[in-house]
Amino acid sequence: MPLGRACSIAVRGIDGQVVEIEADIGQGLPSVHLVGLPDTSLQESRDRVRAAVANTGEKWPDGRVILALSPATLPKVGSTYDLALAVAVLDAADIVPSAKLAGTVLLGELALDGRLRRVRGVLPAVLAARQAGRKTVIVPEEALCEAGLVAGIRVLGAPTLRATLDWLRGERELAESRGLPAHQASPVGDLRDVAGQHEARWALEVAAAGGHHLLLTGSPGIGKTMLAQRLPGVLPSLSENEALEVTAIHSVAGTLSEEQPLITTPPFVAPHHSTSVSAMVGGGSGSARPGAVSRAHRGVLFLDECAEIGAKVLEAMRTPLEEGEVRIARRDGVARFPARFQLILAANPCPCAPARDVDCICAPLARRRYLGKLSGPLIDRIDIWMQMHPMSSAGLAAAEAEDSATVRTRVTTARSAAAARWREFGWLTNSEVPGHVLRRQLPLPAESTAPVEAALRLGRISARGADRALRVAWTVCDLRGGDVPTAHDVMQALNFRQRGTQ
């Protein structure tokens, strides 16, 4: 009985699993049957694959063709299996030799004329193929730069099904990845563009150095958005592992650039205030897709006009903020996406948002309700609150402020100190350290923690707020090059948590 085999990859979240495709050609009326939990787009591949094979000049087998995708209990989603399906059928029909198929993974969608089209999730699929011990992976030529980011596996790019078959027969060579492409830094605004606002700039620097979440309040046009957009410019570049992790998320989301696929700078994601829960944390029908919180992984999530965002959307971010991960449950399993990001919130002080507080026409209850949409548990997870005030003409005409490169140097030094301190635990920034570890492993002198103890007794902060104040104090200490936070550092941290209420 003719039987052919080929391999592809199923991607769930940013994790991949090898899928073995078996093709059996039996007696009966000509037909094609897919088994193994295929979704609608995969069911439709029967017609795509058959037309592509015929238009490539190969003969589709006469008889009943059964295509089984294993493991059978794993849901198969998307069109990435097209190339492997076509090759498995031609292998079963003895049209192509099977010598090279044993260690090869095939990825790509087929057009009706046999062209290979790019699919989402190529990078995590190649990572999974390497982890499974496969030697070679064939991807659409358009995705060769993305797939080539993975070292330790041979990556080939094929423009068409015909080119793939010729390679299997030993009649031609395919384009091979040459490694990492040259990176060109994406242009970002410079921090020197922000006139005045020295306190807000200092708050942004502390947030960058420790990976802390930040809330900016103030009247329209005061510079909240401008300041937040310059945060990625003062953050250190991503390490190699972080860059691959972030790029894998954007590969699944389908937002990678074909020319420069590797993301080496912290991403900046700013969804509109009308965004939905699934768009924010991920989801969608069928295969779960990463949301804004995951696309901002290792970068910045900026929520402008946060008081206008729906309460359910804001509350859905509480778990990612605390755990650094999103888990999306489906009938057949759970998709996990990393979501370790810095949250920057910006809001007007009230609904009418006047240029000056004295011009506000809102009732006191309306002002309270406006920012009251930010629930207590959510606002308690914000480390730094900063209320920005209008600048005078003299402040706008003041001397040029520090640029992003100068601030980035201090931020990088502070982050290096924190990473060295928490190396044995695997944490990179002070914001990631759990409160109980902070208190037990590196307890502060009584004179340093006295301001926190007083704030707890007076009910000004919660226990979680106290832990966050200590994290910020360690960051302030790192920025000044100290060894242990002083009472002054702790007071600065507490002052950051009270500015938003003034």
From TrEMBL:
Highest taxon above the source species: Bacteria
Entry's Gene Ontology molecular function annotations: ATP binding
Domain AAA+ ATPase: 210-375
Transmembrane segments: none
SUPFAM superfamilies assigned to the protein according to its UniProt record, in alphabetical order: P-loop containing nucleoside triphosphate hydrolases, Ribosomal protein S5 domain 2-like
Family indicated by similarity: Belongs to the Mg-chelatase subunits D/I family. ComM subfamily.
Protein name, entry field: YifB family Mg chelatase-like AAA ATPase
Organism from which the protein derives: Nocardia speluncae
